[in-house]
Amino acid sequence: METDRAMKSSQAPPSTAPPLLEVRELGKQYNGFTAVAGISFTVQTGECFGLLGPNGAGKTSAIRMIYGASPPTAGSLHVFGLDITPDWRRIRARIGVCQQDNTLDPDLSVLQNLLIFAGYFGIPREQAKRRAKELLHFFALDKKSDAKVGDLSGGLARRLTLARALINEPELVILDEPTTGLDPQSRHLLWDRLHALRARGTTFILTTHYMEEAAQLCDRLVIMDHGQILVEGTPQELINDHVGQSLIELTGTQQEDLQRFLQEKNVAFDVMGERLVIYSNGDTALEQAIHEKFCSRECTFRAATLEDVFLRLTGRELRE
Amino acid sequence: MIQLSNLSWRFLRVWRRNLIVYRKIWKVNFMVPLLEPTFYILAFGIGFRGLISEVSYDQHPLTYTQFIAPALVAISIMYNAFFETTYASFVRMYYQKTFDGMMTTPLSLEEIVLAEIVWSATKATAAATIMSMVLALLGYVTLPQGLLIVPLAFLGGLAFGSVGMVFTGIIPSIDMFNLPTFLFITPMFLFSGTFFPVAGLPAWAQTAALGFPLYHLVELSRYCCLGLIEGSILVSLGYLTVFLLIFFWISLVVMRRRLIK
After folding, report:
1. Segment B185-237, tens digit of pLDDT
2. Residues in chain A within 8 Å Cβ distance of B13
3. Where is the ABC transmembrane type-2 domain (chain B) (predicted)?
4. Which of A276, B77, B202, B224 could form a disulfide with B156 if both were Cys (CB 3.0 to 4.6 A apart)?
5. A245 close to A236: Cβ distance less than 8 angstroms
């Protein structure tokens, strides 16, 4: 029920233009293992679309199919209205990809990384130089122009990777975990730049493990697990539909009484080891009651976040 | 499936990337082919002079140094191409993930593989050219016929580059390149009419040597350097061409299987 509602509300973006990306029943199997099991979604021009899910959910497999590095084994995939299988070259000329691994060329300097990459796109030399200069400036890499890539810190390398992904002025940018492993400063700088690019109308597809990042950047997102899409919607819709506005977290004793109390009152909750999460959904009377009766010790009343949705839907057990 | 439609002149952009990296340390890259023949000629020329008076090749008496000089060029072509598409390409593919990055651009895997092989042939040609110039100065290569080494080195480079690429496509870890080096490159290095004429081998070994691509490269190299050949120019050229086409094809198949998942 809830899932249906989320789907419907997000299926009608304001524009009626053909979608920039259309994925239908897309599947990927290798060596008998199903990495992606029939997913469908669309992304409109100018949107930032998030693909979320635990490790091994099939995000990177899906992303690799979108940029034509991995042939789909089922379903269809259209980017800019073009079919990925015959038209992968034309599609790649118009997209930029920031991969999860560092694929910068360590044999080349920072500037050369951009210029040589521009060459792969067939961008004329003068234009490439101009564009590289702009991008180095945009990502505050001006002073590192002649540095060796191997000497760059993680944050600088990621900025350069993103700069490189933008060398062909892509209409669609694919970011696979762009901020994983970065310090907060680097992460905020990157977010800041992504916001600036969004303001210019660039379309984004993003995978991330940081729910705060997804909530901040994505207009719409899907949560995947085991190769399938569990839910789709805007961050706020997903929060409202799956965990409500607010929740209570408590640890320690008296849980049995509390659980009985919650069951009587028909209130949703999850038990996670020592912790109990109660989806109070803005019911102040209920929160008051729980506070008085059960919160002798650790009790946290807080607003629900996308992370709560994520954990509720994909479970708490470790994946790897 | 291999799609030849995925091959275009765009491969030259990847080739250019390797050239730019090569030029960064061109002095080191030039030093080896410049010094290597000099060392060999000195060692063998002086060392074996007293032991081996002359070698008969194509019914011509040659000094031992004259006999091995063209083989050194052929060996250098083999080494330069084979080690480029094995160790060097493997590092780019596996450790540096350079190919993964390239595959987000309008380049196909087929173009990347072709570029690596053509690059290895280019490197082999540069080394062979420098080497023959040194050997010509020392009097072991006759000019202008010796200039034919340039196209020959490119052909030989493509052949050995292709077979190296096949190993890169199937090898699980970089240490395992020791195996093809030990089982394939080293026997060829020794038994391809390089340091002694194959005529000195038992009949079965002579026949086996005919199957070695290096044997044909050495034959052709002697022809380029000295104008002498015991076998047939056309057979050797044909052998190298067919060898190259077969292994280029296999390299595309195994690299696709390895990288396109």
Report:
1. 999 998 898 888 888 888 988 888 899 999 999 999 999 999 999 889 999 99
2. 116, 119-120, 122
3. 28-258
4. B77
5. no
Put simply, the answer to whether B104 touches A119 (Cβ < 8 Å) is no
Give A26-67 pLDDT, tens digit per residue. 999 988 899 999 999 999 999 999 999 988 899 999 999 999
Residue B96 has pLDDT above 90, yes or no: yes
SS3 A97: strand
pLDDT over threshold 80, residue B130: yes
Question: Up-side HSE of residue B258: CA atoms within 13 Å toward CB?
Answer: 23
CB contact under 8 A, A120 and B14: yes
* CB atoms A108 and B20 under 8 Å: yes
pLDDT at B218: 96
Write down the ipTM of this complex. Answer: 0.89
Residue with tokens 């040194």: B134
Q: Which of B22, B103, B260 to mutate to test the interface with A (most CBs of A within 10 A)?
A: B103
Q: Are B76 and A79 in contact (CB under 8 A)?
A: no
For A229, list phi and psi in degrees, rounded to 5.
Answer: -85, 125
State how far residue A17 is from chain B, nearest Cα, in angstroms: 26
Please name the residue that has the structure tokens 């905020």. A188
Q: Which domain holds residue B102?
A: 4-259
Task: Please check whether residue B220 is in contact with residue B60, taking contact to mean a CB–CB distance below 8 angstroms.
Answer: no
Residues of A in contact with B21 (CB under 8 A): 107-108
DSSP A72: -
A105 and B100 in contact by Cβ < 8 A? no
d(CA B163, CA B86): 9
Contact between residue B111 and residue B131 where contact means Cβ atoms under 8 Å apart: no
For A28, which residue in chain B has the nearest alpha carbon? B261
Q: Which residues of A fall below an 8 Å CB-CB distance to B? A: 30, 67, 69-71, 89-90, 92-93, 95-97, 99, 101-108, 112, 116-117, 119-122, 164-165, 168
- Facing residue for A70 by CB, picked from B14, B16, B261: B261
Q: What six digits make up the tokens of B63?
A: 């000094």
Q: Is B258 on the interface with A (CB under 8 A)?
A: no
Res B116 pLDDT > 70 = yes
Measure A171 CA to nearest chain B CA, in Å. 14
- The SS3 call for residue B83 is helix
Phi, psi of A277 (to 5 degrees): -115, 120
Distance of CA A278 to the CA centre of its chain: 26
Given this model, what pLDDT does residue A91 score? 96
How many domains are there within chain B? Answer: 1
In the structure, what pLDDT confidence band is assigned to residue A319 with cuts at 50, 70 and 90?
low
Mutate to test the interface with B, among A73, A107, A113, A148 (most CBs of B within 10 A): A107
**pLDDT for the residue numbered A7:** 42
Which tokens belong to A107?
């044999």
pLDDT value of residue B200: 81
